[in-house]
């Protein structure tokens, strides 16, 4: 992990520092040349005022980023605002049944039932309703912070807990009795008509009956129409409201946090601010010096920021992205220039070894008008050209210059640029021009 910690005197200066760090991260990922997304993120346990995440899109990712291609809206799913509640009555008519999602509190006293629509009438409706919605667990956690989302079967856990609780024969006299209760919330697409606990598919099941008996009449209902569903591809963008959003599975590569005084206050990390002398008619030197002495009134808390990049994740993301490049038919490793051990490798047959040294001098020596490449000459005597080519594929050089039979016969170098999917024959005198015009693309 690459970490950066910043300390500023004022919130305004801290914001400027934060923006500089964000810009530096953007420039860094731009130079890597791999796809990435910048998203507004939840500060989580670290806390602070606001934060941004830098994500590499991949189907194997554990995060979901919601973004709009037409505006700057890009957030981690846990920070998403739910789609607007438009045409509520019309939307309700499109759904004919519902299913229940259950959650349970950490103390096992509170059961939450969320009713979500699950099937619709055969008519064309908004793209966000093309498939049954899934529960937005982040929204449920915001509504009910006490929920324990790690419980796989809340109903069974609730029933088992209260069966044991009621069968207990001894209690402390001073212990306040716990009361099992249920709160029901509704998605805006269904009517909040009075229904039994559990969805229609669960009615009559022994477990549901048992839970109903435990709860009795201790049921409360949130009458407000809520959007309890996760975002789906095609939902309306909350940012511009004129376009649809897209979901991206991703891996987090970096994170920037503006912490403010989140840590400096508890740690009493202060500094003494320069006092401002009071305006007086008598500018007595001793008076000014007295005003300049440090006092409690002159102390302020540091405004902090912390920023980090996961180096190992970044390396894995680059390898995954470029190894699966559509131009990479061999599925070999390809590194961006800024990450590769060398920018270019020169390989040659035994008879072209001296010419290979000239090519290395041509590419690696600085001259007027030419920024030298970080190049390596594979001059191993015990390996043939075929072996060297396979090693070059394994190492992932961005540029491979080959002096083989074509050079022996026609004086032509083969230049392979795997990221671009090109392998062209170039005269030695034209190598710099050929490579130089392609460097910014690799």
Give structural notes.
The chain has 442 residues and is an alpha+beta fold. The chain has eleven helices and 18 strands. It has helices at 11-32, 88-93, 137-143, 154-167, 206-215, 285-291, 311-323, 353-364, 385-395, 405-410, 431-436, and strands at residues 2-8, 37-41, 50-57, 63-67, 74-76, 95-104, 110-120, 181-186, 219-221, 246-260, 270-272, 299-301, 303-309, 344-348, 375-377, 399-403, 412-417, 422-427. Strands 1, 2, 3, 4, 5, 10 and 13 form a seven-stranded antiparallel sheet that branches. A five-stranded mixed sheet has the order 15-14-16-17-18, with helices on both faces. α8 links the parallel β14 and β15 (375-377). α4 (154-167) crosses α5 (206-215). The chain is elongated and about 90 Å long. The two termini are 25 Å apart. The model is unreliable at 83-93, 121-129, 169-174 and 288-294 (pLDDT under 50).
Give a quick precis of the structure:
Helix content is about 25%, strand content about 25%. The chain is α+β, with helices and mostly antiparallel strands and about 450 residues long.
Descriptive key words:
five-stranded mixed β-sheet, 442 residues, alpha+beta, 18 strands, 11 helices
């Amino acid at each position: 992990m690459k970490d950066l910690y910043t300390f500023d005197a004022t919130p305004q200066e801290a914001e400027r520092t934060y923006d500089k760090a964000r810009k530096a991260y953007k420039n860094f990922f731009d130079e890597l040349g791999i796809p990435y997304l910048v998203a507004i993120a939840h500060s989580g346990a670290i806390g602070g005022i606001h934060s941004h995440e830098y994500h590499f899109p991949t189907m194997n990712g554990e995060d979901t980023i919601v973004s709009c291609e037409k505006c700057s809206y890009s957030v981690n799913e846990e920070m998403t605002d739910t789609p607007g509640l438009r045409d509520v009555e019309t939307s309700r008519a499109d759904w004919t049944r519902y299913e229940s999602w259950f959650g349970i509190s950490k103390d096992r006293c509170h059961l939450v039932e969320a009713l979500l629509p699950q099937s619709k009438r055969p008519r064309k409706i908004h793209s966000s309703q093309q498939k049954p919605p899934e529960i937005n667990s982040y929204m449920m956690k915001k509504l009910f912070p006490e929920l324990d989302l790690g419980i796989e079967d809340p109903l069974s856990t609730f029933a088992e807990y209260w069966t044991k609780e009621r069968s207990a024969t001894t209690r402390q006299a001073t212990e306040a009795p716990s009361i099992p209760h249920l709160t029901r919330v509704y998605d805006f697409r269904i009517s909040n008509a009075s229904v039994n606990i559990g969805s229609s598919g669960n009615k009559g099941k022994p477990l549901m009956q048992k839970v109903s008996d435990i709860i009795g009449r201790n049921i409360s209902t949130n009458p407000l129409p809520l959007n309890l569903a996760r975002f789906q591809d095609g939902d309306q963008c909350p940012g511009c409201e004129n376009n649809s959003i897209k979901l991206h599975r991703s891996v987090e590569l970096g994170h920037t946090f503006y912490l403010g005084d989140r840590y400096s206050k508890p740690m009493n990390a202060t500094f003494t601010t320069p006092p401002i002398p009071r305006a007086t008619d008598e500018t007595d030197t001793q008076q000014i010096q007295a005003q300049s002495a440090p006092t409690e009134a002159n102390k302020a808390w540091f405004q902090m920021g912390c920023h980090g990049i996961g180096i190992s994740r970044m390396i894995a993301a680059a390898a995954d992205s470029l190894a699966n490049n559509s131009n990479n038919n061999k599925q070999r490793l390809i590194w961006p220039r800024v990450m590769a051990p060398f920018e270019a490798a020169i390989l040659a047959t035994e008879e072209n070894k001296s010419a290979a040294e000239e090519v290395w001098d041509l590419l690696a020596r600085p001259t007027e008008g030419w920024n030298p490449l970080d190049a390596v000459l594979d001059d191993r005597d015990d390996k043939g050209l075929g072996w060297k080519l396979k090693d070059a594929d394994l190492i992932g050089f961005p540029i491979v210059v080959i002096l083989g039979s074509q050079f022996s016969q026609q004086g032509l170098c083969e230049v392979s640029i795997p990221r671009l999917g090109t392998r062209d024959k170039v005269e030695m005198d034209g190598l710099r021009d050929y490579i130089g015009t392609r460097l910014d693309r690799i």
